């Protein structure tokens, strides 16, 4: 039976090692945007004189998005197209693009023309400075205040507080990654917003730079206030991962110690009641003591299982910290304010 690492190796086997950059563009009902976006990407990358590819991922669009992407691929061999049979979400589309990308550096961006391809050279320059992940910061965001910008500010502050990774704009899709990093990070559900937090488990060096943000020209936004509960649910999952990933046994043993202490107190209460010949109280106190004792044992066993799972998963996910000494030390953090 092959493990996850072997499957990832199989997916990346035979790719062009000389390809320097892959631009991954998830698209859902963006038929009017993919053509102009392609032209802007080509225009932005032409002066860099590097080997690149553009991967459009059609996330089950109901319009002509796939047909227009396919036409671009037929005219330009640097363009690849992946099509989902149904809408699976932005994270799934990004994962598909990452799995099929051949570049040493990967850039993700939205297909709605709000991300500016002219910022890609800045992202690549920061990556070359020694960083593993560069996050775009839409410091002059061109969206509605109440429905988009204000919830985003509050969510970013909450995410930074919960995860300990201070990123000003987790929702910005314009990011650059070293391919060997992002393939270490397990992504599912709506976890694309938490890539910096997940990458921190792999010891990634993370930078953020100011990027342009443009008003939507075509179509309508796929997001609104309805995504708040999804963000909160995913944030809870991320916090659990960050909390228990490195020390699952320690965290569970802490809870087990509390349960064991309560079990001991109840046992002492049962003994005291027995000396006073209070039989109903003895039964209740002893029953509660047994319950807490069983809980303590259960938590210890769960902690041991969690530790074994972490050791196995960290090997198959390849989530061990990156070797920082294999690359030059980065320059001071660029333009954070």
Task: Describe this entry's structure for a reader.
By secondary structure, the chain is α/β, with parallel strands linked by helices. It has 2 domains: 4-244, Spore Coat Polysaccharide Biosynthesis Protein SpsA, Chain A (Alpha-Beta Complex), CATH 3.90.550; 248-316. The protein has 11 helices and 7 strands. It has helices spanning 4-12, 34-45, 65-75, 90-100, 120-128, 145-163, 179-182, 195-200, 228-245, 248-275, 279-316, and strands spanning 21-27, 52-58, 79-83, 105-108, 133-137, 175-178, 206-210. Strands 3-2-1-4-6-5-7 form a 7-stranded mixed sheet, sandwiched between helices. Helix 6 runs parallel beside helix 9 (228-245) and helix 10 runs antiparallel to helix 11 (279-316). Residues 1-14 and 319-330 have low confidence and may be disordered.
The helix-strand sequence is HEHEHEHEHEHEHHEHHH
What is the structural class? alpha/beta
Q: For the largest sheet, list the strands in their spatial order.
A: 3-2-1-4-6-5-7
CATH class of the largest domain: Alpha Beta
How would the global form be characterised? elongated
Mean pLDDT: 80
In CATH, what is the homologous superfamily of the largest domain?
Spore Coat Polysaccharide Biosynthesis Protein SpsA, Chain A
Radius of gyration: 25 Å
């Amino acid at each position: 039976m092959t493990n996850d690492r072997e499957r990832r190796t199989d997916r990346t086997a035979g790719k062009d090692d000389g390809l320097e950059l892959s631009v991954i563009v998830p698209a859902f009902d963006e038929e009017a945007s993919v053509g102009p976006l392609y032209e802007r990407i080509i225009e932005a990358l032409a002066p860099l004189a590097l080997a690149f590819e553009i991967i459009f991922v059609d996330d089950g669009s109901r319009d002509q998005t796939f047909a227009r992407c396919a036409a671009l691929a037929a005219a330009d061999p640097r363009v690849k197209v992946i099509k989902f049979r149904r809408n699976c979400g932005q994270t799934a589309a990004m994962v598909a693009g990452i799995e099929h990308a051949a570049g040493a550096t990967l850039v993700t961006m939205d297909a709605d023309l709000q991300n500016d391809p002219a910022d890609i050279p800045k992202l690549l320059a920061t990556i070359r400075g020694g960083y593993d992940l560069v996050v775009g910061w839409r410091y002059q965001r061109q969206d509605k205040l109440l429905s988009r910008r204000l919830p985003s500010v509050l969510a970013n502050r909450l995410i930074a507080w919960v995860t300990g990774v201070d990123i000003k704009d987790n929702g910005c899709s314009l990011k650059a990654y070293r391919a060997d990093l992002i393939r270490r990070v397990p992504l599912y559900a709506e976890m694309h917003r938490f890539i910096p937090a997940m990458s921190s488990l792999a010891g990634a060096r993370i930078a953020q730079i100011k990027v342009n943000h443009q008003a939507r020209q075509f179509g309508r936004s796929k997001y609104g206030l309805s995504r708040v509960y999804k963000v909160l649910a995913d944030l809870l999952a991320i916090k659990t991962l960050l909390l228990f990933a490195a020390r699952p046994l320690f965290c569970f043993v802490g809870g087990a110690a509390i349960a064991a202490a309560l079990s001991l107190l109840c046992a002492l209460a049962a003994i005291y009641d027995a000396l006073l010949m209070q039989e109903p109280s003895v039964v209740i106190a002893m029953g509660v003591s047994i319950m807490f004792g069983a809980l303590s044992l259960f938590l210890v066993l769960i902690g041991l299982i969690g530790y074994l799972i972490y050791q196995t998963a960290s090997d198959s996910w390849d989530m061990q910290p990156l070797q920082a000494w294999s690359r030059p030390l980065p320059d001071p953090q660029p333009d954070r304010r």
